[in-house]
UniProtKB/TrEMBL annotation:
Coiled coil: none
A Pfam match: Semialdhyde_dhC_1
Record family assignment: Belongs to the NAGSA dehydrogenase family. Type 1 subfamily.
Taxonomic source organism: Oenococcus sicerae
Protein name: N-acetyl-gamma-glutamyl-phosphate reductase
Reaction(s) this enzyme catalyzes, per UniProt: N-acetyl-L-glutamate 5-semialdehyde + phosphate + NADP(+) = N-acetyl-L-glutamyl 5-phosphate + NADPH + H(+)
Superkingdom of source: Bacteria
Length: 347
């Protein structure tokens, strides 16, 4: 049976892509929109491209959890950080299915959220109800899914095979991650203005990126010996895509690292439809852009003993709206592939 959904935040970049995916999803019925500054407007007034000629032009509603619970089967929040933890409480307490694209329920420790996001955290009891929704790894979903961050998705999927199989020195992980500008959302800011970004590369939030605690939290769940990682983010002069370039020393005593590491990637991901393994043929951004894929390649350097892993996603799909729909599919027992693009657009 089709599911009716509520979408909060259609005016943002992630919300726009999510609306497009949900509109074309074979198991989604009615999509009701809830907003913030655009309440009362028609969708065509804020996102004309989302409404085709002759199609229904939905109105943006004032957020109303009772209406959502009455009319919908699930709610997607594509709102800025600090919104769901203020307004989603009624839904969480009623165990109503929620998929949250923001960072508000990803960190299990409220103090850590307040330190890294500089905003008040969600209630500790509500945080306990959330599952971290990295689709390839969560054992079972709760009714509240914290969709992972874009950089965290690329980094964790790149590192999983070598961390879970104890193939690297856990104190040696260095992640050099780069993102297109759509990752910054639609708000205007000097750091993402055309003059700053065009023909330029800018390192930002060095050692203070909010995805550091999220990545460390999940890596520690996989291997409690892990202490920290070195993590740097750079803004690329492109619209969509993230490349996480990851370096680590291979653990001592591993015989034939090249073969063992390749086998670990194959064993970890052989039944995962959205992971595309490139082996030593390292992927570029266009190997994942406009798809829900994570394209992963790796190379072992026998001279330095370092494994290089390159993990590439589309930040708005696998890094946000695509993974949210994948979680929706899994939450309702649908095939996890439905409604999601699997072929990247190279041109
Ligand atoms: N862009 C990306 O690549 C990724 C984004 N995310 C996360 O997804 C979420 C959305 O990101 P993105 O689309 O880039 O951000 P945008 O800045 O483009 O959009 C933010 C959205 O949140 C809405 N919003 C803001 N405040 C409120 C409020 N008080 N109540 C309801 N809605 C509100 C905005 O509505 P209005 O315009 O009316 O203010 C807008 O629709 C963020 O939490 C982000 O961290 C996660 C992974 C990747
Ligand atoms: C290019 C760019 O600015 N990207 C954003 C990613 C935002 C994001 O996904 O952050 P949340 O954890 O709030 O979901 C950043 O680096 O902060």
């Amino acid at each position: 049976m089709n599911k009716n959904v509520a979408l909060i935040g259609v005016s943002g970049y992630a919300g726009t892509i999510l609306y497009q995916l949900l509109k074309n999803h074979p198991k989604v019925g009615t999509i009701t929109l809830y907003g913030h500054r655009d309440v009362g407007k028609h969708l065509s007034e804020i996102q004309p491209d989302l409404v085709q000629y002759g199609q229904v032009d939905p109105v943006i509603n004032q957020f109303d959890p009772q209406k959502i619970m009455k009319e919908a089967d699930a709610a997607f929040f594509a709102s800025s950080a600090g919104v769901t933890n203020q307004i989603a409480g009624t839904l969480i307490e009623a165990d109503f299915p929620v998929i949250d694209l923001s960072g508000d329920y990803r960190l299990s420790d409220p103090k850590s959220y307040e330190k890294w996001y500089k905003k008040p955290a969600a209630k500790a009891d509500d945080l306990k109800k959330a599952t971290y929704g990295l689709c390839e790894f969560h054992p079972k979903l709760s009714r509240y899914v914290a969709n992972p961050g874009c950089y965290a998705t690329a980094t964790l999927l790149g590192l999983a095979p070598v961390v879970l199989n104890n193939l690297i020195d856990l104190d040696s992980i260095i992640v050099d991650a780069k993102s297109g500008v759509s990752g910054a959302g639609k708000k205007l800011a000097p750091g993402s203005a055309f003059m700053t970004v065009n023909e330029n590369l800018t390192v930002y939030k060095a050692n203070r990126h909010q995805h550091i605690p999220e990545i460390v939290q999940e890596l520690k769940n996989w291997n409690p010996q892990l202490r920290s990682i070195q993590f740097t983010t750079t803004l690329l002069p492109i619209t969509r895509g993230i490349m996480a370039t990851i370096y680590a020393h291979v653990a001592k005593g591993i015989q034939d690292p090249e073969k063992i590491i390749s086998q670990a990637f194959i064993d970890t991901y052989e039944d995962k439809p959205f992971i595309k393994l490139h082996g030593s043929n390292l992927p570029s951004i266009k190997d994942a852009a406009y798809s829900n894929l994570d394209a992963i390649g790796w190379q072992y350097n026998p001279v330095t003993g370092v494994i290089l892993i390159v993990s590439v996603i589309d930040n708005l799909l696998k890094g946000a709206a695509g993974q949210a729909v994948q979680n929706f599919n899994m939450m309702f027992g649908f095939n996890e592939r439905i409604g999601l693009p699997i072929v990247p657009i190279m041109i």
